[in-house]
Amino acid sequence: MRQFMIDMMIMMMPAMKPMVYAGGAAAAIGFVLLIAHMLFRSDNGGYILLAGRILLGLALFFFACQVAGMALGMPPKINFGDFSKMEFILVPFWQIASAFLAASLFLGFFGGRTRTA
Hints:
The protein has 117 residues and is mainly alpha-helical. The protein is 74% helix and 5% strand.
């Protein structure tokens, strides 16, 4: 079972960087919609909450991956460096998850206040 988990972790690593970029895009869209609501009083509270929920799901996923990787003795990290220049900028999953969680709580708190009943 342990070897299966390690193999799955290795197979999933190339898909993690696009997930981080998708989370960053969801956060950016959520913040843009929140600013648009504050400036123009547009009714987009549901979309702000959707962006926050997407970020919350990604945060929970990355926290779970961090716990699973540490249980296997291989703490997962994403390399944001350039491979051709041999740059290694390693960011642990828990830091990415913490940023997504903070953004999701912010969007959830303020996005929920933009909705009108």
